[in-house]
């Protein structure tokens, strides 16, 4: 590995650790301070933190790889995600910020569900927490695997060393600074990702002789690479179901705990529109950069004799070939930034759930603020250790499970979050029904040995579609058959009053 690359990466790690220490010194010592940053996030940090923790390695590896293989038909998933992210800012962000504070100052999603529906049995919290802990532990492990493989393939270091370096740095700043550190590092990481995804495609296009020459090369390779409704990898037309499945990825945003927790932590509802503008601008420009990296990167590789690469490594390939080692190190840091931003967010959400939804509820009801913060930090270490242990098995089914986690969270929590924020007549029984129906539908859709046209159910239609629809139906039907408690009605009225009071800034 070139000395310049090592210097760039070393500086990157030092900056991340420095932010963690700064956040530790500036944050208050309460559990709300550790888990939600004291609800003091500004709009810029909120927006880029949500975006960076959302996109992960998908933005710099997955999406360019899909574009490399399938052409611009791969952009349907990007369109769906963009629409979903925008709707999340409009529908969920302002209401969730107000309601979680009204609902006994809820600091986790399970905490909010319990308080919203006055669930004295605490089963709603427990089920939601179990879903979060299981899926996010696996999700975290996949990020650690990605870090290990990046170190192995790019730096010629051992896979195991890559696991410990990736997880170690993330655990260090998450452990020290909590939510504030995670959010601030996400902000820096989001800036690095943004600059990288603008820089790489511009340099590639310039090396191809300009946009016209680059487009001519792509057309010569396969005209279907510019066909929006044709998969260039197979030269077959996309079906309506296929397009719906790709667009449906956007539905997942409403139920992702590591994303919507940012809305709970934003400083004020009046900051939501600013955060939305910043977040959506960042997302659209970054997605365009990722798409261009894959498409024009493919054109560049086609001009290199005898070169064959893994499509998902096109960003790494271009970073190492076209840039000075110092810049190349910065670009590789962008991939680490994407991986680390998601790992840190998932670690903290899982830690928050273990601390607030298990430790405090079932083990130490009278625990002090200091004790809960310590429990949260211990939880970060435990979850990270389990994730590293799972990551040692490269051939495990973790990655296949994680590929379905977006659908699982989206179907189990998405309709529940939306209806809980808009439907005053929604009941506790409906919340149970919606969450369980969504999760079970996704699992059955993935694993039932049923085929349609020779395809598995999951290959025929993305599982979030039936999961989201059936969960929504379950919530509506059960709400019609049951009655909300009087205290639930009163809490919702209090929420509506608070929201109405802030309408002018929403």
TrEMBL record:
It catalyses: L-proline(in) + Na(+)(in) = L-proline(out) + Na(+)(out). Belongs to the sodium:solute symporter (SSF) (TC 2.A.21) family. The keyword Cell membrane applies. The chain crosses the membrane at residues 6-24, 67-91, 123-141, 161-182, 194-218, 238-261, 282-302, 314-339, 372-392, 398-422, 429-448, 460-479. GO terms for molecular function: L-proline transmembrane transporter activity; proline:sodium symporter activity; sodium ion binding. InterPro entries: Na/Glc_symporter_sf, Na/Pro_symporter, Na/solute_symporter, Sodium:Solute_Symporter. It holds the Pfam family SSF. It is found in: Cell inner membrane; Cell membrane. It is a multi-pass membrane protein. One of its GO terms (cellular component) is plasma membrane. This is Sodium/proline symporter. Keywords: Amino-acid transport, Cell inner membrane, Cell membrane, Ion transport, Membrane, Sodium, Sodium transport, Symport, Transmembrane, Transmembrane helix, Transport. CDD domains: SLC5sbd_PutP. It comes from Alteromonas alba. Catalyzes the sodium-dependent uptake of extracellular L-proline.
């Amino acid at each position: 590995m070139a000395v310049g690359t090592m210097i760039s990466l070393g500086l990157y790690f030092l900056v991340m650790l420095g932010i963690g220490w700064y956040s530790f010194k500036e944050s208050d010592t309460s559990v709300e301070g550790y888990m939600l940053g004291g609800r003091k996030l500004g709009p810029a940090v909120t927006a880029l933190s949500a975006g960076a923790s959302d996109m992960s390695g998908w933005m710099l590896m997955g999406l360019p790889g899909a574009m490399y293989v399938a052409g611009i038909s791969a952009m349907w998933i990007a369109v769906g995600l963009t629409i979903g992210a925008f709707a999340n800012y409009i529908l969920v962000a302002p209401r969730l910020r107000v309601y979680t504070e009204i609902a006994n100052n809820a600091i986790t999603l399970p905490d909010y569900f319990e308080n919203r529906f006055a669930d004295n049995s605490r089963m709603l919290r427990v089920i939601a927490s179990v879903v979060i802990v299981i899926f996010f532990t696996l999700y975290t492990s996949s990020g650690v695997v990605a870090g290990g493989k990046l170190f192995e393939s790019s730096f010629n270091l051992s896979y195991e060393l890559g696991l410990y370096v990736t997880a170690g740095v993330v655990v260090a700043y998450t452990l020290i600074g909590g939510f504030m550190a995670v959010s601030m590092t996400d902000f820096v990481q989001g800036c690095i990702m943004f600059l990288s995804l603008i820089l790489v495609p511009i340099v590639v296009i310039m090396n191809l002789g300009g946009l016209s020459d680059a487009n001519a090369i792509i057309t010569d390779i396969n005209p279907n690479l510019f066909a929006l409704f044709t998969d260039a990898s197979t030269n077959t037309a996309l079906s309506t179901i296929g397009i719906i499945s790709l667009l449906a990825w956007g539905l997942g945003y409403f139920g992702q705990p590591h994303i919507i927790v940012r809305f709970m932590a934003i400083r004020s509802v009046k900051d939501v529109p600013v955060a939305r503008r910043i977040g959506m601008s960042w997302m659209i420009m970054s997605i365009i950069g990722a798409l261009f990296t894959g498409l024009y990167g493919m054109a560049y590789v086609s001009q290199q004799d005898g070169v064959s690469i893994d499509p998902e490594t096109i960003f790494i390939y271009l970073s190492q070939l076209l840039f000075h080692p110092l810049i190349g190190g910065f670009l590789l840091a962008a991939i680490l930034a994407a991986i680390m931003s998601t790992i840190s967010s998932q670690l903290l959400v899982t830690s928050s759930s273990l601390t607030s939804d298990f430790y405090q509820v079932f083990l130490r009801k009278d625990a002090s603020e200091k004790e809960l913060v310590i429990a949260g930090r211990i939880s970060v270490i435990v979850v990270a250790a389990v994730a590293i242990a799972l990551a040692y098995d490269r051939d495990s089914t973790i990655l296949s499970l994680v590929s379905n986690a977006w659908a699982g969270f989206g179907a189990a929590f998405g309709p529940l979050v939306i209806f809980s924020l808009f439907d005053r007549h929604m009941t506790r029984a409906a919340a149970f029904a919606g969450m369980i129906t969504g999760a079970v539908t996704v699992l059955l859709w993935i694993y039932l040995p049923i085929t349609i046209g020779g395809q598995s159910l999951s290959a025929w239609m993305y599982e979030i579609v039936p999961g989201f629809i059936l969960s929504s139906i379950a919530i509506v039907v059960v709400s019609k058959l049951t009655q909300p408690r009087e205290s639930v009605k009163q809490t919702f009225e209090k929420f509506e009053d608070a929201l109405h009071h802030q309408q002018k800034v929403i």
